Each structure stands twice: as structure tokens, then as C-alpha cells.
């Protein structure tokens, strides 16, 4: 129940942010690098019981528990000026939810070594990639012991 409350609060925060944004926005360019491309190789397959489950190709699983670098935008999970846990997205929070190609971009749950201030500018994060293939209460991808490499 606690997780549902957290996600509901995030949804409300993002909805209010989008509604109250008054300046005209031009669509942002989606950020990418080789690691985002690798993370996007995850697909969904039907298992023997007829359930649709995530499928992680061996080339993706080879990066599990390795250090990677991702560029992206902070998406806060909790309210505050600084964040130790947040989502990283290839699109900014203020991107219009009606713009783009209609697909929800992959996000990575970030666990920072030290809390950082919120920024609406792209950042580059380095950390240990953890691929979650069994726990439905956390993100599919997590970056543990993360540090900021640079801000763009």
C-alpha cells in the first residue's frame, strides 16, 4: 500500500506540474546513449502458463551488476529540494505528456550515494546497474551507489 501511495503522489505532482506550466514548450529531444539502447532491448514474452513476462536478452543481462553511465532528467519520487532516490528519464519532467510518439520511455530508479539538488537540466549518472526480474514493487532497472558525473 505504501508503494501505491508513493506512485499516486508522483502522479498527482506530475499532473499538477503539467497543468500549471504556462510557458509554451517545444518537444525535447530524447536523450540516449549506448546503455539506454541496451536497456531498451527488454521485451515482453508469453511464458508456458500464458502470462506475459519481461524477457531480458543475454546481451542485456551481461550488464547486470556492472557499472554503467546514463544521461537523463531527474523525475522526483518524493517532494523536496534534494533527492537521494529518484527516477532518471530520457525526457524531462516538463515534457508535455501529449507530445512525442506515444510510447512511455524507459526509466531507471536511481539510488545516489549522496543526495543531490533537483535540476531540470540533463545530468550524467554513474552507478551499478541492477536488473530486477522478480520484484514488482520496484523499478525494472535500478542504479545503485550512483554518483553525478556531470550536469549538461
Element layout with pairings:
Elements: H1 2-20, H2 34-39, E1 43-46, E2 52-55, H3 58-61, E3 67-76, E4 82-89, E5 107-117, E6 123-131, E7 141-151
Parallel strand pairs: 5-7
Antiparallel strand pairs: 1-2, 3-4, 3-6, 4-5, 6-7
Quick rundown:
This protein is α+β, with helices and mostly antiparallel strands and 152 residues long.
Which terms would index this structure?
alpha+beta, 152 residues, OB fold (Dihydrolipoamide Acetyltransferase, E2P), 5-stranded mixed barrel, 7 strands, two-stranded antiparallel sheet
Description:
By secondary structure, this protein is of the alpha+beta class. It has one domain: Beta Barrel (OB fold (Dihydrolipoamide Acetyltransferase, E2P)), CATH 2.40.50. 19% of the residues lie in helices and 38% in strands. It is built from three helices and seven strands.
Amino acid at each position: 500500500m505504501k508503494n501505491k501511495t508513493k506512485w499516486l503522489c508522483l502522479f498527482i505532482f506530475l499532473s499538477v506540474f503539467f497543468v500549471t506550466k504556462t510557458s509554451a514548450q517545444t518537444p525535447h529531444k530524447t536523450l540516449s546513449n549506448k546503455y539506454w539502447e541496451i536497456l531498451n532491448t527488454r521485451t515482453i514474452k508469453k511464458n508456458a502458463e500464458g502470462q506475459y513476462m519481461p524477457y531480458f536478452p543475454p546481451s542485456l543481462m551481461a550488464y547486470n551488476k556492472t557499472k554503467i553511465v546514463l544521461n537523463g532528467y531527474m523525475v522526483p519520487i518524493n517532494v523536496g529540494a534534494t533527492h537521494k532516490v529518484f527516477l532518471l528519464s530520457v525526457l524531462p519532467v516538463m515534457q508535455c505528456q501529449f507530445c512525442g510518439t506515444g510510447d512511455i520511455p524507459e526509466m531507471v530508479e536511481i539510488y545516489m550515494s549522496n543526495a543531490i539538488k533537483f535540476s531540470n537540466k540533463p545530468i550524467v549518472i554513474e552507478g551499478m546497474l541492477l536488473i530486477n526480474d522478480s520484484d514488482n514493487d520496484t523499478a525494472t532497472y535500478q542504479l545503485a551507489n550512483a554518483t553525478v558525473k556531470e550536469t549538461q
